[in-house]
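Morning F.,

Quick status update on the modeling queue. The single chain you submitted on Monday has been processed. Sequence for confirmation:
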Amino acid sequence: MITLNRETLTRRVSRFKVIIAFIFSFAIIFDMKLDLKYFREKLEAERVKIENELKTVGRVNPSNPNDWQAVPTDAEADSADRIEVAESIENFEENTAILKELEIQLNDVKMALKKIEDGTYGLCEGDGKPIPMKRLEANPAAKTCLEHAKSVKFEIN
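Structure tokens below.
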């Protein structure tokens, strides 16, 4: 017969609770096919929304259908009027900046949809652990958990 003192028993119960919590959270994220369907639908809706926003500031590049080009908002600016030309150039630059951000978002959504198909959706790219459900709910295209999102260093192209 094995006898355990109160301290040892408390530690074992605590470990058991941690293991059960991990298994439960893992099951919530990865074992529910309905959740994947839900996130796929949410991502598809986001893809459509972003593509519609892209159409307001750009067009699909005819030589590369996976790329977008910014378009000026006022293509009929009188070239003799410097103010109108300057405003047209400024609008084009604004459209270019907006388009770049939207393209990044669109690519993130497309990558998340691919991960659903590959069976890797919801895994942090930093450490491979499950991304918390609350984070995926807030940002279905999330690539990392919050801990790794804070440590990502942005590179300027």
